[in-house]
Structures are given as C-alpha cells and as structure tokens.
Specification:
11 helices, binds flavin-adenine dinucleotide, alpha/beta, FAD/NAD(P)-binding domain
C-alpha cells in the first residue's frame, strides 16, 4: 500500500494550507532602539511588548516569519516543567523550583488572555492534555508528578486509571494516564499569523529574508550586518531557538537543534475519529520516543508526531515510522493514507530548561526543549521587559542556565547520533519488554 495520497506534498506542514501571509516591509532602518532577530512566537511577542513599552522596534527573520518551529509544531498548549519539582529544587533551589512551577500556570493564562485581547483566531480550544503511561513504572512516576503539579503548580492535574483512560482513547496500550484539564490546543500557524498581524497593525517593521550575518560591537550600539543592509541597534533580542546559527557561536554551543516530525492522515470518517479518541484530548506518551497526537482543528484528521529520530532522517522514513507507531495504537488506521509529513527543529538545552538572559547588549529567550507554544511568547515578552528595565520582567527562567559541554562546539550535534542509537536499541526495547511483561 502506498504511504501517501497522490496529492501529498512531503515537507510542507499541514498548517501552511490554511494561512495567507501578509506583505512585509522591505527597508531596514539605519538605526533602531531594539532589533529582534527571529520572527517566531518569541520574537513577535517580544516586539509587541517592546512597542507597547514605547520602544522603536524592528523584527527580522532569515526567511518568512514563522518559518521555524512556530508554524510547524503540534499546537499543544501547556507549559508545566518536564522535570519534577525535586529535580528542579536540587538543581536551582526550592524558591526557583516553586517559581518554575507557578510560572507555567501563569504563562498559560496569559497566553489565553493575550489571544483574546489581540482577537487572534487560531482555533483555540480547552481540550485538556492527557499524558499516557506506557509502562506501570511510568504510571507510578506520574502519580508522584501529578501530586507535585497540583500542590506546587497551582494548575489542576489528575491521575486517570486504566479504565478512565479507556474512555478517552480506544486502545489497550496504556496503563493509566495523567490529565491536565486546562491545557489546550490551537492552530500554530494561525497563532503565528495573529501575532504577526498584531505586530504589523502596531506599525512594527517586520522584514523577511533578512538574515543577521554578523554583530559588531560599537560604543553605544551593536551594528547588525544583514543580507539586506546594516542597522545600529541599541539593544537586541535574540529569538532564534532551534535555528540558532554560526553567527551566534556562544548560543549555538548551548542551544542545539533536535528534529521533531509530524504526519497528517487523509480526512477520516467522523464516526471513526469519535471512536478512536472519544475524549478529543491533546495526547502525549511517556515513552522515550515521545509520540504526541491530536485531532486536527476541523475534526477530520489525526495529526501524529514524535521523535522519529533524534537526528535528521529522510521524511519518508520518518513518515513510515510514525505511521507504524500510530497503527500500533489504533490498528483501525492500517489503511489510512497520509497527506502530509514535515519536520522542524526544537531547540534543546543540556539542562532541558529554557532560559532568559543577557550577554552585553543581546537579550535572549530560548531553549524550550520541545515545548514552547506557551513559554516562547511568555519569555520573549520577559526578555524585552528585562531589556527595557520594565516592571513585570521578573521570571524564574532567569535562574536556569545555558550550559555547554566540552564535546559540543556547535553546528550539527553529532553526540545525538549516539543518543539516537541508545534510545532506539536500548531504551525503546527496555520499555517494550516492561510493557509486555505487565
Ligand atoms: C515538529 C514540532 C512540534 C512541536 N510541537 C509542540 C507542541 O505541540 N507544543 C509546544 O508547546 N511546543 C511544540 N514545539 C516547540 C515550539 O514550536 C517551539 O518551542 C516554539 O515555536 C519556539 O518559538 P521561537 O520563536 O523561539 O522559535 P522559532 O519559531 O523556531 O523561530 C526562530 C526563527 O529565527 C529565525 N532565524 C534563525 N537565525 C536567524 C538569523 N541569523 N537572522 C534572522 N532570523 C533568524 C528562523 O528563521 C526562525 O523563523 C514543537 C516543535 C516542533 C519543531
């Protein structure tokens, strides 16, 4: 059976079918108060905050705005820390761990109200997010984690038994689950477009196809050399996350790209979808291959993502692997064809936590390590408030750190080749054995 429908266009994100991009500016001013490099969620949110605080701001992107992860992601909305409170407290101290937990809830509420205030139509839904436990040990860990999230995070989080999970998703695969009822879903490209429009409606200059290629320190400013001319910026916000390049060697050694892949099925019958996922939640797995899946906003398709590999592999290979994982969960999809497969870079840090900080005149927010629909706009704003010395700039994410390793000099993270083999041949098999024994 062919994997794809005849009209499939591998590489093109499903989300791009629904949006029309506005005409952008084409002149880079000679001087600017604040230059934002990168026009994803981080950069556009930063630019809006800067404008609203009275700064003159320009945003540049090396390609089309949003061409990075911000129009390629799964559209799952939520921000609780991946690491448990204990691990965070051990690493950063109890106060910071508390802050990281509470800020995740605050950030989610803020993103929702910002979408409402800017009247962004992005298919926002309060679906809840269900994390599905593949092994009993992972289910036990979820029980501890759920108690911590409820106690420290100020966001509701419930444990679901195997039977309760069975009412949400029709598969025998999972031992139980953890539900974040107030997490949600959106259309990522419509969200990006809404932020872009909000920026342009304010008169903010946004330039595409304008890569920053060099920063030169001047006395009172930084000269930014781009392929479309030079500008002198009093401050810079760097918002390049998983697409950070050689122009920014310090950052490139600390935030490295890890690809994530997604597939979209062809439109499926309504009753089949209702049967497969009656809970209509955003769903993620506890397995190391980290499958995540959802129903498309129009209710017609399954979108299924995961780390088909921790390194770049061909799209057809990725689509084959993701489809196999999907059919293992839902054998009823064994005949379903795909219309889309695409990939994008998540920006990982060695500590698996994002960070907001400053190096000279460069302020930055990055390293969302697989999440980011909530934290990227939230921390982009924080980076700007910090750059301008404004109230509201405080964030627990300034206490995390961007660290590097002696073996990583930037560029392609070759150490991920070994990690990939380890996960595929050791961790995945260990999880499968534990799953089958139970
Ligand atoms: C496939 C996939 C699925 C995901 N799913 C989810 C999800 O369901 N939920 C969730 O919370 N998160 C998810 N994420 C993560 C989330 O999408 C990101 O964390 C978030 O979009 C980061 O936003 P950003 O603005 O920081 O970076 P990006 O959107 O990646 O933007 C960075 C921008 O910087 C530009 N740039 C780079 N270098 C330069 C330069 N030299 N000059 C000018 N511009 C430059 C790039 O062109 C790019 O547009 C997913 C990511 C991927 C890839």
């Amino acid at each position: 059976m062919s994997l794809f429908t005849p009209e499939a266009d591998p590489g093109r994100p499903y989300w791009w079918d629904d949006v029309h991009w506005p005409e952008l500016d084409d002149t880079l001013p000679d001087a600017v108060d604040l230059l934002v490099i990168g026009a994803g969620y981080t950069g556009l949110s930063a630019a809006i905050a800067a404008h609203d605080a009275g700064a003159q701001v320009v945003v540049i992107d090396s390609g089309e705005p949003g061409q990075g992860a911000s129009t390629r992601n799964g559209g799952m909305l939520g921000a609780h820390p991946r690491l448990g409170w204990d691990a965070l407290a051990k690493r950063y101290g109890e106060k910071t761990a508390d802050g990281l937990f509470t800020e995740a809830g605050e950030a989610l509420s803020w993103v929702r109200s910002m979408i409402a205030a800017e009247t962004i139509e992005c298919d926002l839904e309060e679906t809840g997010r269900l994390q599905l436990a593949y092994t009993s040990a992972q289910y036990e860990t979820q029980k501890r984690m759920a108690a911590q999230v409820s106690e420290k995070g100020g966001v509701p989080c419930h444990i679901l038994s195997r039977d309760e999970v069975g009412k949400e998703i029709t598969t025998p695969l999972y031992k139980g689950g953890m539900l974040f009822p107030n997490h949600g879903a959106l259309h990522p490209a419509k969200f990006l477009l809404g932020l872009l429009r909000a920026a342009m409606d304010r008169g903010i200059t946004v330039l595409g196809h304008c890569p920053a290629i060099k920063l030169v320190d001047l006395k009172e400013s930084v000269q930014v050399v781009t392929l479309r001319g030079k500008t002198a910026a009093r401050k810079i916000v760097l918002a390049t996350n998983g697409y950070t390049g050689v122009q920014f060697p310090w950052f490139m050694r600390r935030v490295f790209p890890v690809p994530s892949f997604l597939i979209a099925t062809e439109p499926l019958p309504n009753d089949l979808i209702a049967d497969l996922a009656p809970g209509r939640r955003m769903m993620v797995e506890t397995r190391a291959q980290h499958s995540y899946f959802r129903i498309s906003p129009d209710g017609a398709r399954i979108l299924f993502g995961g780390r088909a590999a921790l390194v770049n592999i061909g799209l057809v290979k990725a689509a084959t692997q993701l489809r196999e994982s999907m059919v293992r969960i839902w054998p009823a999809l064994s005949e379903a064809k795909l219309t889309h497969v695409w990939t994008g870079n998540t920006g990982y840090t060695f500590g698996h936590m994002p960070h907001v900080g400053q190096r000279g005149r460069v302020h930055y927010a990055m390293g969302y390590s697989g999440g980011g629909t909530v934290l990227a706009p939230w921390l982009g704003r924080k980076a700007v408030l910090d750059a301008l010395g404004m109230p509201g700039r405080e964030t627990a994410f300034s206490a995390t750190q961007l660290t590097s390793r002696w073996y990583y000099k930037g560029g392609r993270p070759t150490f991920m080749d070994a990690a990939n083999l380890w996960y595929r041949h050791v961790v995945d098999r260990r999880e499968d054995r534990a799953h089958q024994r139970e």
